[in-house]
Amino acid sequence: MTLLQLSQEYAYSAELLSRRIAQLRREEVAAEGEDERFMLHRRILDLQPMLQQCRHIQRLAAGYYDRSYYRDERYTV
Fold it and tell me: Is the separation of the CB atoms in 47 and 20 below 8 Å?
């Protein structure tokens, strides 16, 4: 699997996470109890960093083969 193919997988995962977050937001608005709203909001907060990381790694992997590629300091050893 090439990094370009991997970037497509990350883009797909990001789309799924984005849809799930949107669904949870709708459920949060419709929730009747304070406990239920809190649980849904907490789940949204847990998923948002995952979505950001998927999007970032997708862009990073997609551009890796470009001549203008510059490594990201967050992902170096």
Answer: yes
Question: Tokens 């009747």 identify what position?
Answer: 32
Name the one residue in this structure whose structure tokens are 């909001």: 41
On whether the CB atoms of residues 61 and 7 are closer than 8 A, the answer is yes
pLDDT in tens, 13-55: 999 999 999 999 999 999 999 999 999 999 999 999 999 999 9
Quick one: tokens of 33?
């109890």
Task: Give the mean pLDDT of 42-70.
Answer: 88
Q: What is the pTM of this model?
A: 0.83
How much of the chain is helix, strand and coil, in % rounded to 5?
80, 0, 20
Q: Please, what sign has the CA dihedral across residues 61, 62, 68, 72?
A: negative
* CB of 44 closer than 8 Å to CB of 25: yes
